Predict the structure.
Amino acid sequence: MFESVKFEHHLDKADFKALEPSLREDLLNAQFQLIDQKRRSLLVLIHGPDGSGKGGVLNRLYGWLDVRKVQTLTFDMPCAEEDRPPMWKYWRELPPFGQIGVMLGSWYHAPLCRRALGEMGRADFISALQEIQRFEAMLHSEGVSLLKIWLYLDDEEARRRLKALTKGAWQRPVVREWAELGGAGARKRLYEASEEAARATSTEIAPWHVVPAADVDYRDAMAGSLLLETLRAIAAEPEPAPQPLPPNPTRVPGALPPFSILSTLDLSQSLTPAEYEAQLAREQNRITRLTNSPAFGRAGLVVAFEGSDAAGKSSTIMRLRRALDPQRFRVHPIAAPTDEERARPYLWRFWRHIPQHGRTVIFDRSWYGRVLVERVEGLCGPDDWGRAYGEINDFEDQVSQAGYVVVKFWLAISEAEQARRFEERESIAYKRFKLTPEDWRNRGKWPLYDAAVTEMVDRTSTRTAPWVLVEAEDKHFARVKVLRTIADRLEAALG
Amino acid sequence: MFESVKFEHHLDKADFKALEPSLREDLLNAQFQLIDQKRRSLLVLIHGPDGSGKGGVLNRLYGWLDVRKVQTLTFDMPCAEEDRPPMWKYWRELPPFGQIGVMLGSWYHAPLCRRALGEMGRADFISALQEIQRFEAMLHSEGVSLLKIWLYLDDEEARRRLKALTKGAWQRPVVREWAELGGAGARKRLYEASEEAARATSTEIAPWHVVPAADVDYRDAMAGSLLLETLRAIAAEPEPAPQPLPPNPTRVPGALPPFSILSTLDLSQSLTPAEYEAQLAREQNRITRLTNSPAFGRAGLVVAFEGSDAAGKSSTIMRLRRALDPQRFRVHPIAAPTDEERARPYLWRFWRHIPQHGRTVIFDRSWYGRVLVERVEGLCGPDDWGRAYGEINDFEDQVSQAGYVVVKFWLAISEAEQARRFEERESIAYKRFKLTPEDWRNRGKWPLYDAAVTEMVDRTSTRTAPWVLVEAEDKHFARVKVLRTIADRLEAALG
């Protein structure tokens, strides 16, 4: 991987000066296409040992581009602990479509650093690289292009430069890495891990480009050319075709009658008022106690509510709300995305609401919208909702791995019960707002939702985040089941 | 203030049940007007001693409203230290127009708590209340209405309830306040401070409503009625008239020829290339050293660049950029607001970028847009830009008080020099993007900008955040002056 760059690469000052104006003009024109099209954003990852000139490349690119549409994305030092899932900080910083983000430090940093320091075994390292590969594939599908540049410097030269650097005014950031990774053993392991990472994550959509960094002008001209190439490739992508309405939302057509997981539920289950009062209070107390325990301060709770219209999501959330400390939870009803949300990958608007440890977030409808309403209504194409299952599993897995308990509910009622509740809503003044003509229309799509729910549960019910189907024909039964599930899950997780 | 509520207030269960359905329906209808009009948001502040039922009122309101457009805004405990200016967290949480935010804990908490604990003298307390009054007036002018409810409980009853509370499962949040403010002396001081605060901040646009809290149904019915009244008052506000273009942007017409502060600058100042190289490097080194010092970790740097088109803002920022650790600074070019920004008070989009301590943020154009381009182009009315001076001073003062160094520059060139630079931009391919036909058109407004700048400097050059006018006819001179000013200000602040 790093073999061919070990030969000397050099560009004469005069040659560079001759080349620069047209490179600059071409880059600007290509950047304006990105800005005007607003279809994609571009992340430029610049990696390399300290002293290889990451900051230098950054400054040169800033001199060439329209900087008003470029952001530098930086993150704290690689090994620092955080109070949110590790991927949260990268999601938060994603620039909107039309813009370029230049990253110093990225999702490669933590695994490389931990591997070099011997804190991570090879199997875990490989698995981390695979996660990265899936993450980058998701970004690419969702409108974020990647240009990954690896600045190569041989070890002797890298050490020499680092020493020179630590003598200057730039003491703070360098010395810390120097202390951690400065030893010859760790540097060797970092080199090996880097080569392995570059190989494993050089995919078709996001290959690594190794750039010899010893000669400054060569390095920068190379980086500029790669950027130009990437921008031109983005501009040349064909305009996406308008989404056709899917003729049939089930993915695998067949002769067998479709299986409906919802039809297996026993909707007759119910509680008497006395049972309800007693059990509701008990589960609320359990949740209060568990979410106030010290162990919860290192965990967190993420709850997603889905279900048919009028299945009782809001009233269930209200009972859950009463068990929680208002200082430490939020409810997010999911409505139409804002323009800041529309200009980024789909999951961005959920990641932005993932709270600190020790807190709870409740989603009233959730990221499953893509495989439910967007699928059934044809708001996105089969490609989009088809790959959403895997992306959602990765998302929930990352949140779970960070210690959060992820609980998701489907509240199920029968068609007849829904009709009854709609009519009730029409007849009571202060409930009328909950019903729109669209709700009545959606009833015609019941079989489509049935199929979508079945596939959703099949494909996204995981060990860390299993689906809980809630028999909601009797509201009291449903509320207690939801609260008890949350309490049980918290108890199991907090030990 | 609290006298009349000491008598018994009571509502029979039956009366409450009779009243509730119509109150609920009225509330919903009024809320829908807020949602549909999207002109204003409403913050409901609920204050009162622990045990007075703040959470109870909150839950009842949630039972009555369309909760999808209501957010609970909570903040950490009153006396906790923070890593950003104290007002930042309130700004961050402002709901968009059309929504209701219910606040448990607010900007009243810290001064009340500090006053009750004897950490704050009376003069400082009064001055904190005045700041709050100005802040609330700004919110009101900028589309945020306020409903402030004070739940009253006599001391005997409050103590009894608090004791009962600490026995239950809700141990964590209560016990901390109890420990801090539970003593009879502190409670008495809290009561006195509360009364003083309620009196001092009961303004016409945001009066306090004291609600007797001993009887739960009375308390909630009262809170609901106040909310209904407030929502109806908002709905009844006349539609704002479309903004007329101001006939004359100077506020005080008179016989004297207008004074131009920019005309007093000596634009002939310049540096030789050798002076420039040496001085630029020196100032960059100073800034690097100062922003890497431990003292800077408890401070921060906020820089705003304004100036004529082509005065050299971008190229100056580039020289500043090179002196800063890329891990710890951001540049924000100010362009058209996003819809999330448009749905909130003007200063929100600047507050959201105020960084943690130890970091730098550079604004390429800034919050002064309101009194410059928006004023001159008639994008907002004289009322809006007229009150912006005071609001901006408060904003900068709050940031400065939190330890940040606030530096603001106007880069000045002559009309002739601007024409020369525009022509240069036209002739060089990679500079052409910096010039639009609008830039040429804007030259006709030179005298209007001249007057706007003069008034801006007069009214917003403060001791903590003075304006620095930069003679930018010679780019080298300008860059060194900017960097030296920043280094000097940092040196003075960090000691």
Observations:
- Chain A touches chain B through 51 residues (CB under 8 Å).
